[in-house]
Amino acid sequence: MKTIKFINKDRAQFTVALRKNVNEYFKNKGISTKGNWKMMLKAIAMLSIYMIPFALILFLPMANWLIFPLSVIMGIGMAGIGMSVMHDAAHGSFSGRRWLNKLFGSTMYSIGGNSFNWRVQHNVLHHTFTNIDGFDEDIEPKGSLRLSPHTPLRKIHRFQHVYAFFLYCLMTLSRFVNEFGQLIRYNKAGITKQQGSTAKKEMTRLILTKTAYFSIILVFPLLFSGYSWWLIVLGFLIMHFVAGVFMSVVFQMAHVVEEAEQPLPDLEGAIYNEWAIHELETTANFARGNRFLGWMVGGLNYQIEHHLFPTICHVHYRAISPIVEKTAIEFGLKYNQNKTFFNAVGSHVRMLKKLGRN
Fold it and tell me: Do 163 and 144 form a contact (C-beta atoms < 8 A)?
């Protein structure tokens, strides 16, 4: 596996000061950096938003048209589980208890994903090599989407700012197929072994969990609900379209925006920057003042705080955000942010347009 070296010891004082300031906040408050009762309530809420409509579809006779709003609600719940429950658990920040992190991390399987692939792609590659082409899979070319200025430009990219959001709807569906090729790549690169597992074990788990997911989410409604097969399939697609566009937009607004940099290493694989400053420069927050949005997206509107402190639960991001911003300003560093959700969407669209033309 290729790697990157972050070289700039002269800027390490920022990291020291930042950790000290954030640690003092938790020490003075006498609270844990992990999740609390609010996190548990949120997990129950998100799982309910996802599972209750499914139970209604499965067991309660209703008018055919009701499958559509219920599928939309399931899509919102699906995205909520991914961003607000599984995400923290996969980082070990949901709880101070390892078994709870493992339990709620496994909710990834309930929404059709694979926990191992996610941890490698997100925790290992994305968080370590944020916005570095060839290392961060989140900015790799995705079909007809160009997300980095360092990847080949094609004629079709000229219109990507128009069609991108339609493709985002397909994110969770495309993962069903892509995760098999992704796992094969990890196996060949030796990453699976580095993570303390084996290729056979992870491929077996991938096949079994995908089979279980499709059996429950599609076969059960076909057998036990009164809906026609085409309504079940259409509802399934609607659910994934909603979840896909929701999660894609939130992740893109943090890194593929005008404010976030995409540096390249030199020929020896060196980035001449301190890692924490690199995270600051390649990430952007949005809508920090919108509490409801922050609750819905699992604090991912505080992406800077998440990237600098991934093992701190997102319920604390709003409190430590001013500390991170103040420390950055003291060291003459820019704290990237878009003040509203729509400002961030606009920045992302303009970035897509720019990447589609040069």
Answer: yes
Q: Each residue of 327-352: pLDDT tens digit?
A: 999 999 999 999 999 999 999 999 99
Q: What is the DSSP string of 250-300?
A: HHHHHHSSTTS------TTSEE-S-HHHHHHHT--EE-TT-HHHHHHTTTT
With beta carbons less than 8 A apart as the criterion, state whether 101 and 95 touch: yes
Q: Which two tokens stand for residue 270?
A: 């060196």
How far apart, in whole angstroms, are the C-alpha atoms of residue 264 and residue 283? 15
Helices and strands, counts by H and E, the chain = 19, 4
Do 299 and 318 contact (CB within 8 A), yes or no?
A: yes
Per-residue pLDDT reduced to its tens digit, 244-283: 999 999 999 999 999 999 999 998 889 999 999 999 999 9
pLDDT value of position 8: 78
- Domains contained in the chain, number: 1
Between strands 5-6 and 270-271, the pairing is parallel
Residue 142's DSSP bridge partners are 145
pTM of the model: 0.93
- As given in the structure block, the two tokens for residue 146 are 């160009």
Burial 282-319 (b: 16+ CB within 10 A, else e): bbbbbbbeeeebbbbbbbbbbbbbbbbbbebbbbbbbe
Round to whole Å and give the CA distance between 89 and 212: 22
* Direct distance between the N- and C-terminal alpha carbons of the chain, in angstroms, rounded to an integer: 30
- Domain of residue 184, residue span: 5-355
pLDDT digits (tens, 9 = 90+) for 183-223: 999 999 999 999 999 999 999 999 999 999 999 999 999 99
Q: Write the burial class of residue 204 (CB in 10 Å: 0-12 exposed, 13-18 middle, 19+ buried).
A: exposed
